[in-house]
Design goal:
- The chain is α+β, with helices and mostly antiparallel strands.
- Helices cover 30% and strands 24% of the residues.
- A six-stranded antiparallel β-sheet has the order 2-1-3-4-5-6.
- β4 and β5 form a beta hairpin.
- The longest helix is centred in the N-terminal third of the chain and has 16 residues.
- The termini are far apart.
Length: 185
Amino acid sequence: MSNQTPGSTPMAASPLTRAVLEIDEYASGLGWDQPARLFALVDTDRLRSQEPGLAAQLGIDDSADAASLTPVEQDELPAGAPLDEFLATIAWPDAVAGCAMTVERLMLPPSAEASVPEGLDEAELAQWVAGQPGRQEVRMTVAVLRDGTRETALRLREKDAPNDVLTGSDLVPGLAEALAATFAE
């Protein structure tokens, strides 16, 4: 039995999981080989009451779930900037309840991680990983809330279907930590 209707985001228990799956679905519609994307997560009810013009522009009406989070895509990330350095420059206004990011990466099976040569810079490491058998292209959508709650959606390129998206709170802890740090006082 499927937990979704055709063309919709799968049903999920928490507003954060629903937001992550909505962003994953949006990124999926753009195709692969996309740059990283950053989203602010705002309380839908607050957005509707405090910014009705923006809510209307985003297609949010009175039928939207009041307990939901609305992803708002931010400006394009600077080309060539390492993600950790870029994220260290971000400070969110109080109206932002959380943030999310989609990033595509090559992942190695655990058996290959022990053979990674030491001393490679980022470009050399990327080239080494790209040449390894068993590598997988993956799109990670990671979200965090101000209170530290986290959620991730992982989509493999070779299994690019909504029913094959893996979700969990600790799937990409490094990126989740970097996003959570954008809320540090």
